[in-house]
Amino acid sequence: MNLLGDIFLLVGGAFMALGSLGLMRMPDLYNRLQAGTKAATLGTIAVLLGIGFHHPDWWTKLLVIAGFVLFTNPVGSSTIARAALKSGIEPVRGSNRKVES
Amino acid sequence: MNNTLVTPAISLRHYALVFGVCLLLWVLLVGNLAGQELLAGMVVSALVTLLFGSRFGILTGLRFSPLVPLYILGYLGYFMVALVRANLDLALRVIAPSLPIRPALVEVKTTLKSPLGRLLLANSITLTPGTLSVDVRDDTLLVHWVYCPPGTDAQQATDKIAASFERHIGRFLL
User: Fold this and answer.
1) B56: Cβ–Cβ under 8 A, 6 or more apart, which residues?
2) Chain A contact for B58, CB < 8 A?
3) Measuring CA to CA, which of A55, B7, B47, B102 is 20 to 30 A from B131?
4) Average pLDDT per block of 10 residues along chain B, 174 residues long
């Protein structure tokens, strides 16, 4: 049980790390948001699952947290992307990797 | 077909739903089903429902049928698989030295009419492989796509990005 929990914690951490790598490597705000949101959401859920295996009696509260993260994380990133688009930040398109400042 | 946003009228069923959601949240946070806790939860939920029930307009649009819980579970399962696939997909792109991306903004049409349905669809799109909802205007979602195949038109984009989620969500929301 504890081992399984550790594995989930590790997987969650790994996804978070990959998400951060994505933040560094992606060329513009929109692509970075993609990397950040997905990795943070699944990473958080994996970590919560890991905690759940370590403390099985907390599962209801962990479920509420997971539901909250699932609902609000994408809303947050959509809002940032929308604000960016409205303030005129052009997304890079196609194979063009240069960021226009 | 008329695709304008529809907010169904608030009915008694809607108040029952708000009460149920509040009570479920209370029970989950308390973590046990002891009589006193449940009673307190029912009092608080009833109070919240009476005071704010009419403002939970976002919760209208849910279809009422015995199969709804099953459909919601089906949607959640499909969604979790998509979320894991999205992360693996993204991880591969980020690790690959050539950074294989071909970003584009595409427009996707939706047939969902309720606010909650569109919110769920936009959220689902954000968390699935390579796509991020940027804006919702009427029945059109603006989606940022990390790898848009060359020569994709709006219909193909809709099919690829939204259609399967729409099918799942459409079973329990208007």
Assistant:
1) B14, B18
2) no
3) B7
4) 59 83 89 84 90 76 79 88 88 82 82 83 85 84 80 74 82 78
